[in-house]
# Entry
Amino acid sequence: MRYERPFKRTDRVANEIQHILGEIQTQYIDLSDLGFITISHVKISPDLKSVKVFFSVLKRKKPIEKIQLAMNNKAKAFRKYLGMELRMKYTPELKFYYDDTVAYTQKLDSIFHDLHSDD
# Structure
């Protein structure tokens, strides 16, 4: 009988990478000039060699395009620290993308609040 794990290896590695990137952000790389950045989601390719990192920004200090460019410019530093923590044969390439779900949720909340206050 074959033992089934609760989720795939890619999911487990993505969760670990998200956790490590959060620690790197607070300990080694200063992102305070961009705003309050949180790593919201990580997707990893099936071969475990490339990662899409989705981030959200609260209290942003620059436009989103410049923040995303700055994050991608710091990807090499993130990868360096990630390689020290992650126990894998290859350290995956990182690409950062803005996750607009927080802004979308806030917009929906304000619409619902306006509808509720009109009644």
Residues 9-118 form a domain with the GMP Synthetase; Chain A, domain 3 fold (CATH 3.30.300.20).
